[in-house]
């Protein structure tokens, strides 16, 4: 027995030492290449030549459509940098909720990946405050991003005068997707404000009791915030929206919040009843199959529908919401950063450079459903109607950063706010919700943490 | 056998090192709970019991605690009772035990992630339970989509997983009851139910202590099941303390607060473990 | 006992067994179905064909995790058992002045919820530079599981007949020799029980594996399985296939070595304070 044990131990140790840590089993179609071509990829001089050039990328684009879009970036990157081995480390969970858990450990460990995904604004500020990311001003000036990128994007990644992330694409959060066949059948037109939304929901509910008027997937709690945001925009307009999320409003006294919650409560009975167990992509799937009529979500929802085989204009359509009192572009920016102490900083620089390339962005955004950050990508790049409308909206309308995932509002408050809102959907207790909002605004120091945004305005 | 101090050192020091390390980590958590560490970068600003006071004022804390208490009340008695009844039946059934015991026990080999996925699927809008209900002409239920039903649904999955464990402990206990007592009672004409109530139940006190202690400790650790099945939802209705700790530390960055929650969990665990250990040591010494 | 009571006993048993088996049955049948069949919702029906696609896809995503978990679980178990049984030996057989005290503090350490040391454990593994590695996981699991290994092995060692010890002492056998040449072979079933139990616990562990390795090359099977749920609209047949795959090692151990598994469980529960 003892001999066997010793043999077993020796064998296991040998196996563990001999085999290098296996690379993450990639989802189908991720690309890993190790072609030995000595192509200089960076401008900065390198220290004694590293054995293997790698790039470890952490992100959360795992859902259908997102994955394929990420692969496009990988293809472009590997084409430009064939000697860097690309290691994809995706962590599922919309908005990066799980990724942040893992990242927290890694960053504290001073063992960051070479780059990771973030959403700009307050969310990025977390990393900046923790001194976990380095400025990327060198790339910013190199690639002339002050001209190539819209100013509003630049301001969302600038802290203390330095840029800390490279945006790659922009999503719009305030789309209302609806099932075309259902609307045609019932003779409905897409609503333009929250009262119309309630009316449309009621009609669907009355005429077709088996169909859930509004799809939502609150297992991803942020979907509740997405829905609330458009209600708030409809009730109070973009100024109140910004004030609320940056702690400039007193929830206890401001009537806008109360009205918004009242309208939100009126929507609650029309939500898909099992929303507590659905993730966002599970919910949007309901729209495709016709089990639900409408869904408020960003244009990444469109990518999901397209990937599942549903056609724009035939099966589904997207309408900007709300269009009254003022239609705005509620913006979500996806960026990548340069972590402090990245194991392969040259790879990181190469990656970030590649991200700014208009060709990469052009192809990526078509699949992803977003629009390119780089203004060199013309609106004509996008083959579909939704994209073009988004592109036009971005250029012509007022752009407001979305609260989603902690871009406009601090992460800690958003996490609490998500819980408050999802609980509100079940209790309908407006007073309690308002008082909770006030309590958490204070304990999460929303006003203090949003000072950077207000100062930049 | 003769042994020297060096032997003690050799054999025991690795374990002692590890155990002391564990206690060291607990002390670390205790200290962190008294700082205002927020965000990703460590910050050791001492602020006394502020975090605890804050915790006591948070509705979410009391909700989570309430859920934990609910777990204790709703999870432990059915599991223990079911385990006892099954153990008795198995004992009576004789040869069938070979087959039935593994069947009832296999859930223990599954990870909570697997159990959670499995039961989440069975509770799905069109899952096993709702399809059965509609098949019988009854209304489908929300199950884990309902803030009222969710905790009971998760507990049901946990009962399924742990009943086998309670059962095997009771099987051992029942075996220790001298056969003569059973024989005597049967001679007197006792039937199975009477045997159960009058002989088995009074004599499994010790095993019951163990079962309750173990199940309590399991209840305090429940995290994976909640994470997989509902992620604390809908809203926060199925949150338990370990989950709340996770959200506070990892998703909101309130490490100081999260550590305070950990200490509360520790306190609850100690309230069970220490008296139990003492009781057991005493019995073992007899 | 009467015929009626015998029948009712068996009837009850069969009913309960069905209740316990239905989840596993549905998991298995669903794992072989196509998405369309799953959508139909006839969960009791057998799949039309033995569709292996789900397993192929689940395997392609999980294979890294399965390999990593195998390496980590086996090595960590070995270390735990080795270190644990050293201590268990001393605590059970060679009583010395502080035996009881050591027992007490070890059992308290065993039964504390490990989540409360998650953060400091992370910091520690970070500080020795082993985040995202197999070695880091092994160290973490060793720390968490050795106390339990010590307790379980101590329980089994106590059953070793004292005559064996006396005979060995008479022969001039020291503790070290006794341990390797006599104790281990004699108590090997107990050691096996402890090993099986600890292997299963490590394999099924979720939170630490998630925090330390998810999204990295060293990711473990159980969090990888949880991650599977997050990609694409939930595809139950895929998830069930993945669940079965991930459960294979502990289930196989349970089926073939069930006796030892049970012995380990009971030893862990009934000894050493809890």
Layout of strands and helices, then pairs:
The complex is a heterotrimer of chains A (457), B (286) and C (274).
Chain A: H1 2-18, E1 54-59, H2 66-80, E2 85-90, H3 97-108, E3 115-118, H4 122-129, H5 137-142, H6 145-148, H7 151-156, E4 158-159, E5 162-163, E6 166-172, E7 175-179, H8 180-186, H9 194-207, E8 212-214, H10 222-245, H11 255-267, H12 280-289, E9 292-297, H13 300-307, E10 316-320, E11 328-336, H14 345-356, H15 358-368, E12 371-372, H16 385-396, E13 398-401, H17 411-427, H18 430-443, H19 446-449, H20 451-456
Parallel strand pairs in A: 1-2, 1-3, 8-9, 11-13
Antiparallel strand pairs in A: 3-11, 4-5, 6-11, 6-12, 7-9, 7-10
Chain B: H1 5-32, H2 50-56, H3 59-93, H4 97-105, H5 112-122, H6 128-135, H7 150-176, H8 179-187, H9 192-203, H10 205-221, H11 224-229, H12 241-251, H13 255-285
Chain C: H1 3-31, H2 35-40, H3 53-93, H4 99-111, H5 118-127, H6 134-157, H7 162-170, H8 175-186, H9 188-204, H10 207-213, H11 221-228, H12 236-270
Helix pairs in contact in C: 1-12, 3-6, 3-9, 3-11, 3-12, 4-6, 6-9, 9-12, 11-12
Provide an overview of this structure:
The complex is a heterotrimer of chains A (457), B (286) and C (274). With 457 residues, chain A is of the alpha/beta class. Chain A has two domains: 52-168 and 334-384, 3-Layer(aba) Sandwich (D-Maltodextrin-Binding Protein, domain 2), CATH 3.40.190; 175-321 and 410-456, Periplasmic binding protein-like II (D-Maltodextrin-Binding Protein, domain 2, 3-Layer(aba) Sandwich). Chain A is built from 20 helices and 13 strands. In chain A, the strands form three sheets. In chain A, strands 1, 2, 3, 6, 11, 12 and 13 form a seven-stranded mixed sheet that branches. Chain A has a four-stranded mixed sheet with strand order 8-9-7-10. The longest helix of chain A has 24 residues, at 222-245. Chain B contains 13 helices and no strands. Chain B is flat, with a radius of gyration of 23 Å. The two termini of chain B are 24 Å apart. The model of chain B has no long low-confidence stretch (mean pLDDT 86). In chain C, helix 11 runs antiparallel to helix 12. Chain C starts with a helix and ends with a helix. The mean pLDDT of chain C is 83. The interface between B and C is large, with 90 and 100 residues.
């Amino acid at each position: 027995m003892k001999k066997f044990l010793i043999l077993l131990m020796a064998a296991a140790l040998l196996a563990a030492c001999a085999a290098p840590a296996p690379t993450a089993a990639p989802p189908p179609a991720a690309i890993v290449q190790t072609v030995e071509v000595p192509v200089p990829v960076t401008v900065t001089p390198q220290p004694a030549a590293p054995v293997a050039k790698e790039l470890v990328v952490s992100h959360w684009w795992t859902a259908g459509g997102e994955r394929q879009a990420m692969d496009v970036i990988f293809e472009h990157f590997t084409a430009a940098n064939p000697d860097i081995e690309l290691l994809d480390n995706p962590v599922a969970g919309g908005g990066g909720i799980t990724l942040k858990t893992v990242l927290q450990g890694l960053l504290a460990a001073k063992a960051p990946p070479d780059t990771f995904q973030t959403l700009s604004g307050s969310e990025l500020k977390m990393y900046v405050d923790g001194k976990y990311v380095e400025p990327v001003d060198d790339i910013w000036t190199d690639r002339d991003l002050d001209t190539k990128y819209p100013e509003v994007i630049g301001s969302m990644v600038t802290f203390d005068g330095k840029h800390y992330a490279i945006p790659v694409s922009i999503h719009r959060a305030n789309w209302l997707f609806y099932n075309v066949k259902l609307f045609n059948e019932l003779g409905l037109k897409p609503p333009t404000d929250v009262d119309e939304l309630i009316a449309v929901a009621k009609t669907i509910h009355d005429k077709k009791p088996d169909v859930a008027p509004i799809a939502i997937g609150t297992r991803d709690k942020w979907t509740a915030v997405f829905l609330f945001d458009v209600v708030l925009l409809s009730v109070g307009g973009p100024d109140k929206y910004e004030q609320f999320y940056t702690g400039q409003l007193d929830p206890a006294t401001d009537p806008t919040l109360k009205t918004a919650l009242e309208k939100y409560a009126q929507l609650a009975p029309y939500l898909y009843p099992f929303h507590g167990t659905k993730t966002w992509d599970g919910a949007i799937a309901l729209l495709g199959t016709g089990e639900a009529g409408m869904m408020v979500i960003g244009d990444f929802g469109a990518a999901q529908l397209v990937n599942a085989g549903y056609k724009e204009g035939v099966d589904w359509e997207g309408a900007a919401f709300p269009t009254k009192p003022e239609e705005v572009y509620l913006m979500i920016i996806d960026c990548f950063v340069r972590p402090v102490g990245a194991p392969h900083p040259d790879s990181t620089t190469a990656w970030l450079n590649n991200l700014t390339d208009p060709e990469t962005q052009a192809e990526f955004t078509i699949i992803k459903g977003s629009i390119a950050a780089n203004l060199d990508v013309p609106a004509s790049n996008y083959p579909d109607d939704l994209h073009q409308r988004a592109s036009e909206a971005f250029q012509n309308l007022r752009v407001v950063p979305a609260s989603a995932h902690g871009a406009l509002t601090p992460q800690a408050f958003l996490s609490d706010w998500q819980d408050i809102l999802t609980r509100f959907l079940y209790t309908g207790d407006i007073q309690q919700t308002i008082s909770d909002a006030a309590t958490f605004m204070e304990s999460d120091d929303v006003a203090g943490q949003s000072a950077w945004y207000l100062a930049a305005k | 056998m003769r042994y020297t101090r060096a032997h003690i050192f050799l054999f025991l020091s690795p374990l002692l090192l590890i155990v002391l390390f564990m206690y060291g980590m607990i002390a670390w958590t205790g200290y962190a709970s008294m700082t205002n560490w927020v965000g990703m970068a460590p910050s050791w600003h001492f602020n006394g019991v502020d975090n605890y006071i804050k915790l006591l004022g948070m509705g979410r804390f009391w909700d989570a605690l309430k859920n934990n208490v609910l777990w204790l009340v709703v999870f432990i008695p059915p599991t223990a009772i079911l385990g006892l009844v099954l153990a008795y039946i198995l004992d009576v059934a004789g040869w069938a035990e070979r087959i039935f015991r593994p069947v009832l026990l296999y859930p223990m080999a599954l990870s909570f992630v697997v159990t959670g996925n499995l039961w989440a699927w069975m509770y799905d809008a069109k899952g096993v339970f709702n399809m059965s209900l509609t098949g019988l002409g009854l209304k489908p239920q929300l199950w884990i989509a309902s803030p009222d039903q969710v905790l009971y649904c998760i507990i049901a999955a946990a009962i399924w997983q742990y009943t086998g464990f309670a059962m095997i402990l009771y099987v051992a206990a029942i075996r220790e009851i001298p056969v003569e007592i059973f024989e005597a009672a049967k001679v007197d004409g006792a039937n199975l139910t009477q045997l159960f109530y009058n002989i088995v139940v009074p004599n499994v006190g010790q095993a019951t202590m163990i079962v309750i202690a173990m199940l309590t400790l399991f209840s305090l650790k429940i995290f994976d099941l909640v994470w997989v099945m509902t992620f604390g939802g809908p809203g926060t209705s199925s949150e338990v303390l370990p989950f709340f700790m996770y959200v506070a530390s990892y998703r909101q960055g309130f490490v100081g607060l999260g550590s305070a929650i950990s200490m509360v969990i520790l306190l609850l665990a100690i309230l069970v473990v220490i008296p139990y250990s003492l009781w057991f040591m005493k019995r073992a010494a007899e | 006992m009467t015929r009626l009571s015998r029948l009712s006993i068996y009837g009850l048993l069969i009913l309960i067994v069905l209740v316990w088996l239905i989840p596993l049955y549905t998991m298995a049948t669903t794992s072989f179905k196509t998405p369309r069949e799953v959508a139909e919702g006839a969960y009791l029906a057998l799949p039309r064909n033995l569709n292996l696609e789900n397993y192929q896809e689940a395997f392609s995503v999980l294979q890294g995790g399965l390999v990593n978990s195998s390496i980590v679980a086996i090595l960590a178990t070995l270390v735990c058992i080795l270190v644990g049984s050293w201590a268990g030996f001393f605590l059970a057989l060679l009583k010395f002045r502080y035996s009881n005290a050591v027992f007490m503090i070890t059992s308290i350490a065993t039964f504390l919820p490990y989540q409360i040391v998650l953060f400091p454990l992370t910091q520690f593994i970070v500080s020795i530079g082993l985040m995202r590695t197999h070695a880091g996981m092994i160290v973490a699991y060793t720390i968490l599981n050795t106390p339990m290994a010590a307790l379980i092995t101590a329980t089994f060692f106590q059953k070793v007949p004292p005559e064996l010890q006396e005979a060995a002492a008479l022969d001039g056998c020291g503790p070290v020799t006794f341990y390797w040449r006599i104790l281990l072979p004699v108590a090997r079933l107990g050691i096996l029980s402890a090993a099986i139990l600890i292997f299963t616990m490590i394999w099924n562990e979720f939170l630490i594996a998630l925090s330390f390795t998810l999204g990295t090359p060293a990711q473990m099977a159980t969090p990888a399985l949880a991650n599977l749920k997050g990609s694409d609209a939930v595809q139950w047949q895929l998830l069930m296939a993945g669940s079965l795959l991930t459960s294979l090692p502990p289930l196989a151990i349970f089926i073939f070595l069930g006796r030892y598994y049970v012995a380990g469980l009971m030893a862990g529960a009934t000894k050493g304070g809890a």
